[in-house]
């Protein structure tokens, strides 16, 4: 129920990385990711190969489906108001955050930006914060309050939604192999130079993995935390990568492996290529049968988690000039 001080209408933007809609858009997308620098022909060709192999990234479509489902869920939870309008905004390709904010904020008295990463990193997330605040400031509205999500890696329904995916994947295995199949809970790798300034972020990733394993009923002897999707740069990145673990799993007698990302919330390149193609090839090279969890996408329990995140974030909404600057 609304009060005199609560908003009557709330605009919500689900903010994520973005992806090129066609192969012809790959160079422009990479140029955006690289801050305006031109990608090499080799990098463009490799990304085109990967996107072609998976039939293109569904990230925008899935995020828009999440936004539509979230709008319905918020309406269900708040029959007496406020009214919520939810949309998707991307950092590195259309629809850009800067372009969707005017529409979703029209007629709203509060704006909530949801960074679609449960684990919060001031360094990695500052681009989203800056873009949403810039878009809001361009509206020139002193009456609009703004709030942006930070950390929500221990949100109970999010954890349970991923744990359910792990359990479902294990339950598809023959009964005699379920308790012995190694479960690799993976997160996107980072350069070591960044990690020195982000110890809390790495701890949050590991806390997420441990909580998911516990909820899925996977014992500590059966699962391990690892990284994936290291960048194409010569500098050292976090280890172990799941590729590094395959020889040891084989030596330990593993016949199957299950890979479950703990931070990715929708199907995209890092799942459909890096895991489904790359990790599968690495497992099969060592004679190990590969399995992966299904992505959360618009799973009802995950949408409930997002609704709770929006509600919690909305409590911190304040006039733009008084909200904390990007970290």
Number of strands: 9
What would the CATH topology of the largest domain be?
Rossmann fold
Silhouette: globular
So how many helices?
13
How does the major sheet shape up? Answer: 5 strands, mixed
Mind telling me the C-alpha Rg?
A: 20 Å
How many domains make up the 3D coordinates?
A: 2
Order of secondary-structure elements: EHHHEHEHEHHEHHEHEHHEHE
Helix content: 40-55%
What structural keywords apply?
327 residues, alpha/beta, Rossmann fold, single chain, 2 domains, five-stranded mixed beta sheet
What do these coordinates show?
The chain has 327 residues and is α/β, with parallel strands linked by helices. It folds into 2 domains: 9-152 and 300-322, Rossmann fold, CATH 3.40.50; 156-292, Rossmann fold (3-Layer(aba) Sandwich), CATH 3.40.50.1400. Helix content is 46%, strand content 15%. A 5-stranded mixed beta sheet has the order 2-1-3-4-9, with helices on both faces. It has a 4-stranded parallel beta sheet with strand order 6-5-7-8, with helices on both faces. Strand 3, helix 5 (122-138) and strand 4 form a beta-alpha-beta unit. Helix 4 crosses helix 5 (122-138) and helix 6 (156-171) crosses helix 9 (199-216). The chain is globular. 42% of the residues are buried. The mean pLDDT is 94.
What's this model, at a glance?
This protein has 327 residues and is an alpha/beta fold.
Note the topology:
Layout: E1 9-16, H1 26-33, H2 41-54, H3 59-77, E2 83-90, H4 97-105, E3 110-115, H5 122-138, E4 145-148, H6 156-171, H7 175-178, E5 183-188, H8 192-195, H9 199-216, E6 223-228, H10 242-251, E7 256-261, H11 269-272, H12 274-285, E8 289-292, H13 300-314, E9 318-319
């Amino acid at each position: 129920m609304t009060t005199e001080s609560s908003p009557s209408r709330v605009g919500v933007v689900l903010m994520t990385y973005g992806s090129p809609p066609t192969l012809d858009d790959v160079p422009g997308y990479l140029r955006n990711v690289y801050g305006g620098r031109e990608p090499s022909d080799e990098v463009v060709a490799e990304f085109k190969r990967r996107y072609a192999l998976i039939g293109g990234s569904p990230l925008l479509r899935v995020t828009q489906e999440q936004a539509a489902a979230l709008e319905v869920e918020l309406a269900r939870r708040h029959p007496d108001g406020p009214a919520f309008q939810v949309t998707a905004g991307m950092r590195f390709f259309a629809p850009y955050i800067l372009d969707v904010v005017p529409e979703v904020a029209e007629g709203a008295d509060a704006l909530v930006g949801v960074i679609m990463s449960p684990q919060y990193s001031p360094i990695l997330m500052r681009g989203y914060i800056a873009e949403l605040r810039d878009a809001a400031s361009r509206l020139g509205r002193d009456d609009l309050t703004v709030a942006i999500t930070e950390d929500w890696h221990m949100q109970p329904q999010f954890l349970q939604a991923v744990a359910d995916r792990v359990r479902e994947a294990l339950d598809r295995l023959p009964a005699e192999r379920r308790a012995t199949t190694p479960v690799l809970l993976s997160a996107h790798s980072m350069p070591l130079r960044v990690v020195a300034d982000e110890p809390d972020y790495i701890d949050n990733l590991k806390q997420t993995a441990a909580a998911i394993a516990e909820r899925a009923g996977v014992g500590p002897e059966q699962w391990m935390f690892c990284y994936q999707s290291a960048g194409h740069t010569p500098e050292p990145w976090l280890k172990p990568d799941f590729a590094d673990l395959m020889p040891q799993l084989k030596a330990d007698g593993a016949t199957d492996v299950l890979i479950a990302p703990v931070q990715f919330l929708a199907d995209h390149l890092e799942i459909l290529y890096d895991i489904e193609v790359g990790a599968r090839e690495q497992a099969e090279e060592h004679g190990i049968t590969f399995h992966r969890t299904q992505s959360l996408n618009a799973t009802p329990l995950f949408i409930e988690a997002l609704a709770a995140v929006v509600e919690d974030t909305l409590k911190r909404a304040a006039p733009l000039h008084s909200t904390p600057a990007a970290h």
